[in-house]
Amino acid sequence: MRGIDAGPAPVHSAPMSIALEEADRDTWLAARRGLRLRCPACGKGKLLAGYLRPAAACSECGEPTGEIRADDAPAWATILLVGHIASPLFFLFATQDPTASLMAFFLIAAVVLVLTFALLPRMKGLFVGLIWATRAGETTQDADQPTHYEPGT
Ligand SMILES: [Zn+2]
């Protein structure tokens, strides 16, 4: 039984660096920053160096966001969204007139192209932000696995 004279209770605290490393990351804030194509950590630096090419690291805070691989998720999400937006348009503009149908086809095709090119980088930003926030890309490294991912290789 511990008495008053037993001294201070033992403190179980991790070193500061580990405590900061293990700090929770705000998932929705990182997702919003990713959608705006900004660094999920600071919200200031650019996430992408090209249309889809990731920047190696944040220009403002140095977070190595270029190591995060979203793989096919941005394309999947873009197809899902654009498909659900464009599909009803075919029914909305359905007509027996072949000229009007052709006009509707080109109009819908233009909508699909514009939406796809606008959404694809933002979906990439969204998934990079989500992966960064949830640390889903961080795994224990095997000896035969590369430890660093070079964008564009
Ligand atoms: Zn940053």
Protein described:
It is a single chain. By secondary structure, the chain is mostly helical. The chain has one domain (26-134). 47% of the residues lie in helices and 0% in strands. The protein has 4 helices and no strands. The protein has helices spanning 16-21, 27-35, 73-92, 98-134. Helix 2 (27-35) packs across helix 4. It is elongated, with a radius of gyration of 24 Å. The model is unreliable at 13-20 (pLDDT under 50). It binds zinc ion (ZN). Zinc ion binds next to loops. The site of zinc ion (ZN) has 9 residues, from loops.
Task: Provide the descriptors you would attach to this structure in a database record.
about 150 residues; 4 helices; mainly alpha; elongated
Radius of gyration: 24 Å
Distance between the termini: 62 Å
Quickly count the domains. 1
Major sheet size, sense and barrel closure: none
Bound molecules: zinc ion
Give the amount of beta strand, in percent: under 5%
Helicity level = 40-55%
Taking pLDDT < 50 over at least 5 consecutive residues as the criterion, the unreliable ranges are 13-20
Backbone shape: elongated
Number of helices: 4
Compressed to H and E, one letter per element, the order equals HHHH
- The number of distinct β-strands equals 0
SS-based structural class? mainly alpha
In short:
The protein is mainly alpha-helical and 153 residues long. It contains 4 helices and no strands. The chain has one domain.
